[in-house]
Specification:
Layout: E1 2-3, H1 4-9, E2 30-34, H2 41-50, E3 54-59, E4 67-68, E5 72-76, H3 82-85, E6 94-97, H4 110-124, E7 129-135, H5 146-176, E8 180-186, E9 188-190, E10 199-201, E11 211-213, H6 214-225, E12 233-238
Parallel strand pairs: 1-4, 2-3, 2-6, 3-5, 6-7, 7-8, 8-12, 9-11
Antiparallel strand pairs: 10-12
Length: 239
């Protein structure tokens, strides 16, 4: 594992951000990050620590997390196992879920059932806030540009539709919960150094919003965590 200072100085993390009018005057929060060893999850862990938060990182194989810090706790837990997840939510202020299966073509319930287990555990421990990652493909296509509407999104749905179908089931789980959720409709997430900035929209997909880097995605997730005006909403981000 890399110490947090070395990880941040290596260019893997991006903490450059512009405060939003809806930004809370937040102090230290206790953040549970599900999927903490993934492409985005590792950046969320590092950046959350950089912002001064206490982090509980969960993953099936947490030993692959490259970060060490006194405010970081790691646990082996599968979000599909409610008995493993529920105790870890005690004392948490907010949940960030970065779980995913990449480009798998196989049917899955990871997004829907994993999120259901998180929000059920949150309810038992009076945790209200959760931020999740979804995809533009899972959203209603009426807002999209002609290129995405007629070419990109139909192709993605055709070849990876099982993943997006479960993301839509995740939407239903969130709508039916009492949680203050925000779901990020992400474009293609690139595993490369952050650009230092990103765009966000709350009403429709962003023009030319084809991709976002993993560090910038992590920054967006944490900025959303620290805002008080995006409860029970979908948002779009891109570089």
């Amino acid at each position: 594992m890399l110490p947090i200072r070395e990880y941040l100085s290596s260019g893997c993390s991006n903490s450059i951000r512009t405060p939003h009018p809806g930004q809370r005057g937040v102090g230290r929060m206790r953040v549970l990050i599900a999927g903490a060893t993934g492409t985005v999850g590792q950046h969320v862990v590092a950046q959350a620590l950089d912002r001064g938060h206490e982090v509980t990182a969960i993953a099936r194989r947490p030993e692959s997390l490259r970060t060490e810090h006194p405010r970081l706790r790691t646990f082996a837990a599968d979000v599909l196992d409610p008995d493993a997840v529920e105790p870890l939510l005690a004392g948490v202020d907010v949940v960030v879920s970065t779980v995913g299966i990449g480009t798998s073509k196989q049917p899955t319930t990871l997004y829907s059932e994993g999120t259901r287990n998180l929000v059920n555990g949150m309810a038992r421990h009076s945790v209200s806030r959760i931020v999740t990652i979804s995809s533009e493909v899972a959203d209603h296509w009426a807002h999209q540009s002609p290129l995405k509407l007629w070419v990109a999104l139909p192709l993605l749905q055709r070849f990876l539709g099982a993943t997006y179908d479960d993301m839509r089931r995740m939407d239903i789980v969130l709508w039916e919960s009492d949680a203050q959720w925000t779901t990020v409709r992400a474009p293609y997430i690139r595993d490369r150094a952050g650009s230092g900035s990103y765009r966000i929209a709350t009403d429709k997909p962003l023009r030319r919003g084809f991709s976002i880097t993993a560090p910038d995605m992590a920054t967006a997730l944490l900025d959303i965590v620290e805002r008080n005006d995006l409860g029970r909403r979908f948002v779009f981000v891109a570089n």
